[in-house]
């Protein structure tokens, strides 16, 4: 057993209000320099939607993460050596239009502009070329609050047909927020895809960092990461990424996104894991087994044998105590109400998500249609489809998501019963 400590995060999606405070405070702290304008170490996506960069989950296009070849864990885009052959043109790279061209406004024009028919006249100017952009077409959360709804209904000259379509499609429209940072993976494909070894995983806390002296700006990490959480600084020609606010965490402070999160959705904690098990766990054949495989790497911080071995491995008492108190351990490993984002990428991500509960669909009016006894809401009839949550959090394992939602629903009903009256009152309401 090779015990290591890892800092990790759980985000409770029911509590995210999509305010982007986390993104803005992160940006002000880490990416407010020339060359970093388009970078969002923390971003919040409106889902379902293409995300940032656009369609980052399309692993066929971007070739990020790991796959199994003849049962062997293999980088989807090929190893660093084969990638070096591609050095002048890497066809899998996300391009500027997949992020967006950073721009600023000429605010002077707002104040001193001549009278005109259409105001405001502050035109956006590219930060890179210095030229005016006629019409910005994309941004890091361009589809905020639309969630794909805008292209669901095709215009149809037959109004009745269109109304029917709207009824069918819009009644089913749903949205949710998905805040994202680097996953500080246990099996990081960004590290494996870097030919110079500039990306590394810190031994003491598992934070994944870039050594800027070693980075040659080849950008293989950029599409090596299936979550697209490594960026290229066009000014310094180095890779940059979320560093889990290590200068803050080393001083005992939370990350800036956690500290400023308006919804208090972010829980930070330390977990202990057996590093000898990671590769085997990441190589299980069926993607739906990856969740259990990843759980099997984690160790019980209350187990005396684990504690002893952790001390032998140089993990100090403060970290052991933190592992016992860890909300991440409780939510992800003990209560099993949090799930990893896209486990099928096989990087063993360490930011886990409590899936959102959502209301029962309005159009279900016949009580007989509800698969519920009145106490536990029917998870299959919630507005956010179980299938969708399973596609991002469970490698399409709907049963796993159902189990988590049922636990959350039961806890909600129980707490309501305790705080605002008995379960019967809840049922009537
Ligand atoms: Fe590396 Fe972070 Fe991407 Fe994981 S999420 S592969 S640690 S950049
Ligand atoms: Fe969501 Fe918190 Fe970020 Fe607001 S600050 S968008 S609530 S994660």
UniProtKB/TrEMBL annotation:
<feature type="domain" description="4Fe-4S ferredoxin-type">
    <location>
        <begin position="7"/>
        <end position="36"/>
    </location>
</feature>
<protein>
    <submittedName>
        <fullName>Respiratory nitrate reductase beta subunit</fullName>
    </submittedName>
</protein>
<dbReference type="GO" id="GO:0051539">
    <property type="term" value="F:4 iron, 4 sulfur cluster binding"/>
</dbReference>
<keyword id="KW-0408">Iron</keyword>
<dbReference type="GO" id="GO:0042126">
    <property type="term" value="P:nitrate metabolic process"/>
</dbReference>
<dbReference type="GO" id="GO:0046872">
    <property type="term" value="F:metal ion binding"/>
</dbReference>
<dbReference type="GO" id="GO:0030313">
    <property type="term" value="C:cell envelope"/>
</dbReference>
<dbReference type="GO" id="GO:0016020">
    <property type="term" value="C:membrane"/>
</dbReference>
<keyword id="KW-0004">4Fe-4S</keyword>
<keyword id="KW-0249">Electron transport</keyword>
<dbReference type="GO" id="GO:0009325">
    <property type="term" value="C:nitrate reductase complex"/>
</dbReference>
<keyword id="KW-0677">Repeat</keyword>
<dbReference type="GO" id="GO:0009055">
    <property type="term" value="F:electron transfer activity"/>
</dbReference>
<keyword id="KW-0479">Metal-binding</keyword>
<feature type="domain" description="4Fe-4S ferredoxin-type">
    <location>
        <begin position="206"/>
        <end position="235"/>
    </location>
</feature>
<dbReference type="GO" id="GO:0009061">
    <property type="term" value="P:anaerobic respiration"/>
</dbReference>
<keyword id="KW-0411">Iron-sulfur</keyword>
<keyword id="KW-0813">Transport</keyword>
<dbReference type="GO" id="GO:0008940">
    <property type="term" value="F:nitrate reductase activity"/>
</dbReference>
<feature type="domain" description="4Fe-4S ferredoxin-type">
    <location>
        <begin position="173"/>
        <end position="204"/>
    </location>
</feature>
């Amino acid at each position: 057993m090779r015990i290591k400590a890892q800092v990790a995060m759980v985000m409770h999606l029911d509590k995210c209000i999509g305010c982007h405070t986390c993104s803005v405070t992160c940006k002000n702290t880490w990416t407010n320099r020339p060359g970093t304008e388009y970078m969002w170490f923390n971003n919040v996506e409106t889902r379902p939607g293409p995300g940032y960069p656009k369609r980052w989950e399309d692993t066929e296009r971007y070739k990020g993460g790991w796959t199994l070849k003849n049962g062997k864990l293999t980088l989807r885009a090929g190893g660093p050596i084969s990638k070096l052959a591609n050095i002048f043109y890497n066809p899998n790279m996300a391009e500027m239009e997949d992020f967006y061209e950073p721009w600023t406004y000429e605010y002077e024009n707002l104040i001193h502009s001549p009278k005109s028919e259409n105001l405001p006249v502050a035109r956006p100017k590219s930060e890179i070329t210095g030229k005016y952009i006629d019409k910005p077409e994309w941004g890091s959360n361009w589809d905020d609050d639309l969630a794909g709804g805008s292209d669901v209904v095709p215009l149809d000259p037959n109004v009745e047909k269109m109304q029917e379509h709207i009824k069918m499609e819009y009644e089913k429209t749903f949205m949710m927020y998905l805040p994202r940072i680097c996953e500080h993976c246990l099996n990081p494909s960004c590290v494996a895809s870097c030919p110079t070894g500039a990306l590394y995983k810190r031994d003491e806390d598992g934070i994944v960092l870039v050594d800027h002296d070693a980075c040659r700006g080849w950008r293989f990490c950029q599409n090596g990461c299936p979550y697209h959480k490594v960026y290229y600084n066009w000014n310094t020609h180095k890779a940059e990424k979320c560093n889990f606010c290590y200068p803050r965490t080393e001083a005992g402070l939370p990350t800036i996104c956690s500290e400023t999160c308006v919804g208090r959705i972010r829980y930070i904690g330390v977990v202990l894991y057996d590093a000898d098990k990671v590769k085997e766990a990441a190589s299980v054949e069926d993607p739906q087994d990856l969740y259990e495989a990843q759980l099997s790497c984690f160790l019980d911080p209350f187990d005396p044998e684990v504690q002893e071995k952790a001390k032998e491995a140089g993990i100090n008492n403060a970290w052991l105590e933190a592992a016992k108190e860890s909300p991440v351990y409780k939510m992800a490993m003990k209560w099993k109400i949090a799930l990893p984002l896209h486990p099928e990428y096989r990087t063993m991500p360490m930011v886990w998500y409590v899936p959102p509960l959502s209301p029962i669909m309005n159009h279900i009016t016949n009580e007989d249609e509800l698969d519920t006894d009145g106490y536990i809401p029917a998870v299959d009839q919630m507005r956010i489809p179980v299938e969708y949550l399973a596609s991002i959090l469970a490698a399409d394992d709907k049963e796993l998501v159902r189990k988590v939602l049922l636990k959350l629903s039961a806890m909600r009903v129980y707490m309501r019963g305790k705080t605002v009256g008995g379960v019967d009152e809840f049922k009537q309401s």
